[in-house]
Amino acid sequence: MKTRNNNPVTDMDSFRTMKKELKWTIIDKFFRPVQDKNKDPFFRKMKDLKRLLIRKYRSKSQRSLISVIMPTFNRAKVIPFAIRSVLRQSYRNWELIIVDDGGQDDTERVVQAFKDPRIRYFKKRFNKGAGSARNAGLRISSGTYLAYLDSDNEWDPDYLLLMVNALKNSPSHESIYCGQDIYRSSKRSPDMKFEGVRAGLFNRSMLENKNYIDLNVFMHHRSLYEKHGGFDAKLVKLLDWDLLLRYSNDSFPFFLPCRLGTYYFGRADNQITFKKRVKPMARLHAKLMSAPLILESAPKLQSVLKISSFFSIPKANDRLDLSRKTTVIFVPNSKDLRLVRLSVEALLKNTDRRAYSLIVIEHHSSRDFARYLKSLESAGHATIIWTTSNSSLSRKVNLAISAAESDHDIAIVNHATLATNGWLGGMQQVITDIPNAGIVVPRRVLPRNSSYITQHVPFCSRNFEADVSLSMHNRNIVDPFLMLSKGYVELSYAPLMGVLLSREWLKRNRSNLVFGKNDYKSNLKMCEQAVKDGFKVVYTPHSKIYYVHK
User: Boundaries of each Glycosyltransferase 2-like domain copy (predicted)?
Assistant: First the structure.
């Protein structure tokens, strides 16, 4: 089976049967069964898909070598469980590289007791952490594909078989991950108890806020290691998150909706998950902070907006289509000149001047405000359209649209919209990839500590900025499978500030667009009109705006 837009996801009819259940997993990553896990409909469909894939793949060639990297440190008591789960694999062409990170227990004796030539044991003199140990394993590995298993976790016997074949069947992807059962013990209750399943469709913007992909159920082609290197050994924790962010920046991983791994919280006494946190998330975010994307003066920007970090945006296409012009309509509905200047400066700094024309539409307000707008016009940055003070938003926008070139796309922004580098090109690429995209929606990112973050995406952390374009509150996800390899998602609704309206759709509706207040009903009406006209509302993770209020 090939999905629309020739997106080579899988050729299993059963994958489509899970579309309804999988739709919301793009923003909700942890599931507890509503009843017994063997009877829950979603869990049962994952189990059925697994059976189908086993039948499909068990006769496939096993010529591709898979290297399994297993770091360990004083885990002699639990490592046999992990080793046996590798030995039980139905896919037989693997090498297990166990790197003992300077442990002082009987791990070597325990490992050597497994008389299998595919198991290779190496011991380091000093304990330098899991990242260093994994890197040592990667350096001596030979596999075309690389997988990771910690010494206190386990795999399903068909994990390697399903993962490597599903990845081969997805040529647009270089990596893959799957669902994982979570078991937990505590000091009060030492017995392992089933807690739920960690699973879900890939969402790059959410991965920048919170890690939901466990390394134990992640496999990738060797090319990613050769291109991006291994683990950052300087990170005490979250080094797997760092690796996932780097590996998914150019090529999004494919999600296989099967439960093929088991994670045990509390199985090992020295489990790093249970160790005291030394501000690991803050350190990782500090590392990932790139050069300021908006202003030369980052401290000034952060003091105004309290934005924690700026991530580089995965580019769908690094080249801006200069043959496709855009009119950016700026409606500064604020008397705060500082915020208006910030928004305009972000737009000017982060948009190729050859690709757009800027129309600012405003009534005569304060003297300083008018002076600033006139300075933009004098410098050739913008055309100013002055209106009466009581003009509605609808009238302002429609005046600007009528003044725009008829063959231009239209982007509408206001004082609360801060463009980032590549925002326009990222949205343009969607129209190239999906010609009937009428409204293109970028990441709509709220600064850290915004009270609206968890309202829209409960799974996200408010400690860091978060994208709320895909919203549980708005229930706006229609089709997350629109183009999995690029992360495009079809929506039913999006706030229209910051979006791109395609010229193809505008040709049909240019004189009929009615903008009310920037509220849910008027925005929904516009989105519904686009769908009625045969166009789609499409979200892209390759374009990013910040949406801020004072």
Answer: 67-222
Same domain flag for 280 and 331: no
pLDDT of residue 300: 41
Same domain (yes/no): 83, 198 = yes
- Give per-residue pLDDT as tens, 58-107: 999 999 999 999 999 988 888 999 999 999 999 999 999 999 988 888 99
> According to the model, what pLDDT value does residue 112 have?
93
Ranked by mean pLDDT, the top range of 288-292, 432-436, 509-513 is: 432-436
How would you classify the pairing of strands 193-198 and 326-331? Answer: unpaired
Output the average pLDDT for the chain: 84
pLDDT tens digit string along 397-426? 778 888 888 899 999 998 889 998 889 999
Cα-based torsion angle of the residue sequence 134, 138, 142, 144 in order, rounded to the nearest 10 degrees: 100
| H-helix segments, 469-514 | 503-509
Task: Single out the residue of 412, 426, 465 nearest to residue 301, CA to CA.
Answer: 465
Q: Tell me the per-residue pLDDT of 42-58, one tens digit each, with 9 for 90 and over.
A: 888 899 999 999 999 99
What is the number of domains present in the chain? 2
126 with 32, same domain: the answer is: yes
Domain that holds residue 23: 11-287
Pairwise CA distance, residues 240 & 287, whole Å: 14
Return the CATH number at 330: 3.90.550.10
Distances, alpha carbon 319 to alpha carbons 371, 407, 422, 425, 508, in Å: 35, 20, 9, 7, 28
- pLDDT greater at residue 244 or residue 286: 244
Bridge-based pairing of strands 193-198 and 30-31 is antiparallel
Q: Treating both helix axes as pointing N-terminal to C-terminal, what angle do 337-349 and 367-378 enclose, rounded to 10 degrees?
A: 10
Q: State the average pLDDT over residues 471-497.
A: 94
Answer yes or no: is 1 within a domain.
no
Whether 450 and 335 share a structural domain:
yes
Residue 97 forms part of a structural domain: yes
b/e map 338-349, b = 16+ CB within 10 Å: ebbebbbbbbee
Cβ–Cβ under 8 Å, residues 393 and 276: no
The torsion angles phi and psi of 530, rounded to 5 degrees, stand at: -60, -45
Q: What is the pLDDT of residue 167?
A: 96
Is 28 a member of any domain?
yes
Could you tell me where the DSSP H helices lie in 367-519?
Answer: 367-378, 393-403, 423-433, 453-456, 503-509
> Are 336 and 382 in the same domain?
yes
Question: What's the CA gap between 224 and 323, in Å, rounded?
Answer: 33
Are 210 and 115 contained in the same domain? yes
Structure tokens at 89: 């694999």
CB atoms closer than 10 angstroms to residue 41: 13
Q: Which of 326, 337, 271, 277 is nearest to 304 (CA)?
A: 337
- What tokens does 65 get? 């070598």
Residue 235 lies in a domain: yes
Domain match, 340 and 397 both: yes
Q: Rounded distance, CA 399 to CA 385, Å?
A: 8
> Could you tell me the pTM of the whole model?
0.88
